[in-house]
């Protein structure tokens, strides 16, 4: 019989991070990943001969510096480089905006649109920096209960602050600070990433601050590229886990979590093999873990009902292309490499554009004019594709999992066409420059990566499913109602994004329990 102290289900980056922490602390640990490659949504794969894509996640910066340091990730190959410029937005009137890693330059860029907005921008950044400092302090610990969280808002401006962060829409908050549509469009892009919501939906303001949690090489509020693509993050975590003694097995699916008298006993693999363990950590989403991997009578029905009610709503399609030439933007002409090719290229001309894209999706229709967040990774890392070619990653929304007409298998290429047509309106040469493309719909994300309904964060990161409400009230501390079972992936606090935080936090909880006399075999 095979036995480990801990089994980690799923070799996404959180499963690997959890395993690395456990192995470092001396627990015999095995990671079981169903796919042939580690990384989950943070993956780099050779899709066409000689062409490697970050097939789902596409930008670095959220990985917690504490995780990088604790696991000594640079030693295992982790490297990240900031995008500079960070953002480029072309507008239909032929103008565009560039945001750099240089505040003075950004203020000048904003002032081209509105002097008043340039004056407001430092106040806006200061506001979010203060809020995100509060939130950042909660990222590496189980979240406080909601009433305690609300009690943190003290002082004369407490109500105003709580309103802005928890209740207000992103559009309303931006209106409070800015007047220029272009400036607001630039800042709104992060707001609804992965959410079944538009920028006018109450509660979306919080996500405006989310981008401020990004940090690369000690520089805050910075997005960038991970060496080797997003799979580079996962490979570094795998190497660290193995260095500390963990075993990582790919192409090894888990069929069932085994229980005995109310506590975990181990897992059963898809081929029927049994692996015993005292601790089982699942980085698979909480819905699949409880509704698909455990016998229904092993869990309290009231708890199962709450898990069943958790929302997971896919709204994203990813299109990965091989280009024969760089996009030639009407507003910044040229097919040779220029600064605007080096960071995010966002198609989001206004807040209303983004809201209208969501309007379609609410009723099960793919957006007629979708929001696009593009990155040309190979301009930073030419090893990703053959010389003379370029990789283009396009994250696009809204493409609802639940369609009012047809099926995603029947409409996959239509979605790809809509995405490329939208980009071509700003860079017409894209129409002829696409040599190959893969279109990954919400259904593909569910089938291939196990993301419920294609939800990019495993479960929705709407305010009603955050902090101590994630995954369900009363169970946000990583321990689950079966002794020895923990959730360590993005369906627990602090949620999705390549942060490593849920994996680290869950591992710390296991180590606490292991120390508390719950002896390890
Ligand atoms: C399209 C897209 C774009 C994104 N863009 C970004 C971005 O740019 N930056 C960013 O920081 N975040 C981004 N995210 C979010 C981020 O990628 C995820 O939140 C994060 O990677 C989740 O990591 P995880 O380890 O918690 O879970 P996952 O990556 O979901 O890992 C779970 C693992 O479990 C495996 N598994 C499932 N079932 C079984 C089973 N029965 N047995 C064994 N293994 C199983 C899966 O194959 C998977 O590898 C994006 C996500 C998507 C989908």
Sum this structure up briefly.
The chain is about 35% helix and about 20% strand. The protein is α/β, with parallel strands linked by helices.
Structure notes:
The radius of gyration is 22 Å and the shape is globular. The protein has 521 residues and is α/β, with parallel strands linked by helices. 34% of the residues lie in helices and 19% in strands. Among the domains are: 2-42 and 60-78 and 229-310 and 456-515, FAD/NAD(P)-binding domain (3-Layer(bba) Sandwich), CATH 3.50.50.60; 104-183 and 199-217, no CATH class. Strands 1, 2, 11, 12, 13, 14 and 20 form a seven-stranded mixed β-sheet that branches. A seven-stranded mixed β-sheet has the order 7-6-16-17-18-15-19, sandwiched between helices. It has 17 helices and 20 strands. The longest helix has 25 residues, at 115-139. Helix 1 (13-24) runs parallel beside helix 10 (230-243). The model has no long low-confidence stretch (mean pLDDT 95). The site of flavin-adenine dinucleotide has 38 residues, from helix 1, strand 15 and helix 16.
Low-confidence stretches: none
Shape: globular
Which cofactors or ions or other ligands sit in this model?
flavin-adenine dinucleotide
> Share of helix among residues?
25-40%
Quick check: average pLDDT?
Answer: 95
The H-level CATH homologous superfamily of the domain at 2-42 and 60-78 and 229-310 and 456-515, spelled out, is: FAD/NAD(P)-binding domain
- Report the sheet with the most strands, covering strand number, pairing sense and barrel closure: 7 strands, mixed
Distance between the termini: 14 Å
Count of helical stretches: 17
The chain-level structural class is: alpha/beta
Beta fraction of the residues? Answer: 15-25%
- CATH topology title of the domain at 2-42 and 60-78 and 229-310 and 456-515: FAD/NAD(P)-binding domain
CATH architecture grouping of the domain at 2-42 and 60-78 and 229-310 and 456-515: 3-Layer(bba) Sandwich
Which CATH C-level class of the domain at 2-42 and 60-78 and 229-310 and 456-515 is it? Answer: Alpha Beta
Instruction: Give the total of beta strands.
Output: 20
């Amino acid at each position: 019989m095979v036995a480990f102290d801990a089994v980690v289900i799923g070799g996404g980056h959180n499963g690997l991070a959890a395993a690395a922490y456990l192995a470092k602390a001396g627990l015999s640990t095995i990671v079981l990943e169903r796919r042939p490659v580690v990384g989950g949504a943070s993956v780099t794969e050779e899709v066409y001969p000689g062409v490697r894509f970050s097939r789902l996640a596409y930008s670095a910066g959220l990985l917690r510096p504490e995780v990088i340091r604790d696991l000594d990730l640079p030693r295992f190959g982790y490297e990240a480089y900031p995008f500079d410029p960070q953002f480029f937005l072309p507008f239909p009137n032929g103008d565009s905006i560039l945001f750099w890693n240089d505040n003075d330059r950004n203020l000048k860029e904003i002032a081209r649109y509105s002097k008043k907005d340039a004056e407001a921008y430092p106040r806006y950044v200061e506001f979010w920096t203060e809020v995100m400092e509060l939130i950042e302090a909660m990222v590496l610990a189980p979240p406080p209960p909601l009433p305690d969280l609300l009690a943190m808002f003290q002082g004369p401006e407490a109500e105003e602050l709580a309103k802005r962060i928890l209740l207000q829409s992103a559009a309303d908050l931006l209106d409070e600070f800015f007047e220029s549509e272009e400036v607001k469009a630039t800042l709104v892009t992060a707001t609804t990433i992965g959410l079944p919501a538009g920028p006018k939906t109450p509660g979306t303001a919080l996500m405006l601050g989310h981008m401020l949690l990004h940090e690369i090489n000690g520089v805050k509020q910075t997005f960038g590229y991970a060496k080797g693509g997003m799979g580079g993050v996962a490979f570094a975590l795998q190497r660290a886990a193995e260095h500390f003694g963990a075993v990582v097995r790919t192409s090894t699916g888990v069929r069932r979590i085994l229980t005995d008298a109310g506590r975990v006993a181990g897992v059963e693999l898809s081929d029927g093999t049994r692996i015993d363990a005292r601790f089982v950590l699942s980085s698979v989403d909480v819905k699949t873990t409880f509704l698909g991997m455990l016998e229904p009578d092993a869990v309290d029905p009231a708890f199962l009902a709450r898990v069943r009610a958790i929302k997971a709503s896919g709204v994203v399609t990813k299109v990965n292309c091989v280009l024969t030439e760089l996009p030639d933007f009407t507003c910044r002409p040229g097919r040779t490499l220029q600064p605007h090719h080096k960071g995010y290229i966002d198609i989001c001309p206004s807040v209303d554009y983004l809201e209208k894209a969501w309007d379609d999706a609410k009723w099960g229709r793919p957006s007629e004019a979708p929001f696009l967040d593009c990155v040309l990774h190979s301009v930073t890392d030419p090893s990703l594709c053959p010389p003379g070619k370029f990789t283009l990653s396009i994250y696009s929304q809204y493409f609802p999992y639940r369609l009012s007409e047809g099926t995603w298998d029947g409409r996959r290429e239509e979605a790809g066409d809509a995405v490329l047509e939208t980009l071509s309106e700003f860079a017409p040469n894209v129409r002829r420059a696409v040599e190959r493309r893969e279109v990954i719909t919400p259904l593909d994300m569910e089938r291939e990566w196990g993301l419920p309904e294609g939800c990019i964060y495993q479960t929705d990161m709407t305010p009603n499913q955050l902090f101590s409400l994630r995954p369900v009230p009363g169970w946000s501390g990583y321990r689950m109602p079966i002794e020895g079972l923990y959730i360590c992936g993005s369906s627990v606090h602090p949620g999705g994004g390549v942060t490593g935080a849920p994996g680290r936090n869950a591992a710390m909880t296991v180590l606490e329990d292991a120390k508390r006399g719950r002896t390890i075999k």
